């Protein structure tokens, strides 16, 4: 694992954006894996600045990591809506090439299988952007997720529901309890991975992901087995390394 440090979150976003621009900026039609949550926001802001300055991502495809099950796509906190607002628009992506798991499908398990097939049909993800949950989850692969898991329906951990309640008026009762997520195996198939983490609340998960054993109890620890992973951290997230 390569680890790059910045004093603050904005700087971490700049570093991560520079990696992405140099890795995929010259490809005619790169395939990005995109994450939601607060972690990648500084990265998307820095990447949007590069798009303003001439980086062209209009032919890139993008696959989101995950989506809540049972939330209408037009709900402002559905990842369909978040990706459109924070990623597709600011990065100048073509909405027709942006994919998000169909969490509102009548048959979410079938939607999961379709999503895996769509990623395969695109010849896989060139560069996967990741955040990390305070409990070490990646995507919505909660503790207990198998290293070879694929896109599937999962139950959210109580900690994740509580953490994400800030997006639902602070009311954990409004947070969906199930999600569709790319599996750990799906994520590890990406040819390159950039994980961004900032803030003290991520320090423990980051330390265990980097220095602990590879274990399903800390899903991000499985990133150790990928040969092209960069963690971009601010000082607080790196404080327990
Ligand atoms: C969320 C998302 C993840 C994200 C993580 C951290 O629940 N499903 O993809 O990386 O948890 O969230 P945040 O970046 O808001 O702390």
Automatic annotation (TrEMBL):
Highest taxon in the source lineage: Bacteria
CDD domains (UniProt xref): GlcN6P_deaminase
Database matches in Pfam families: Glucosamine_iso (PF01182)
Keywords of this entry: Carbohydrate metabolism, Hydrolase
Domain Glucosamine/galactosamine-6-phosphate isomerase: 16-228
Alphabetized PANTHER family for the sequence: GLUCOSAMINE-6-PHOSPHATE ISOMERASE
Name assigned to this protein: Glucosamine-6-phosphate deaminase
Species of the source: Microbacterium aquilitoris
